[in-house]
Input
Amino acid sequence: MIEAQVLDTPIGPLAMLARQGVLLAAGFTTTGPQEMFERLSPELRAEGMDVTDDLGRPARAVRDYLDGDLTALDAVPVEQPGTPIRQRLLTALRQVPAGVTISYAELAERAGLPRTAARAAGSACARNLIAPFVPCHRILPSGGGYGGYYYGTPVKQWLLTHEGAPAAERLRIREH
Output
């Protein structure tokens, strides 16, 4: 059975879904956990979903993150589907520390892929099921600005500001 919880945050409700302590999905949604549940694979959806008042470790990590412990989300185990290349990108993405922003090309490079794999990096971010635990909000276009974000640019801006990252309007990611 997939367990779900919705936490109120300063940027709106955060729905989280976990199975046996491993986070399978998380995202900012006004429709509750059902939206996140529908993004799971058919095999996982077949397990059903039960809404709980306390998901445990993931909920504590979110509260700690919001209270200023910017590394709290890093310790929560996560699992999401994908090809070996996507898994490498998601692993590299999870290693980008709070307050740091990098480009899609840099993410590809950190995953051991050529910088030309920036499009694959963008695709991995777009399909990320576990925000903000897998911090796709820390990836910005190399030309500046915030770029896209599944939950909207204001949420991405808030997360980056909370983490102390430089304002994207003033930031140009250096391509080396």
User: Anything to note?
Assistant: The chain has a mean pLDDT of 91. The chain has seven helices and six strands.
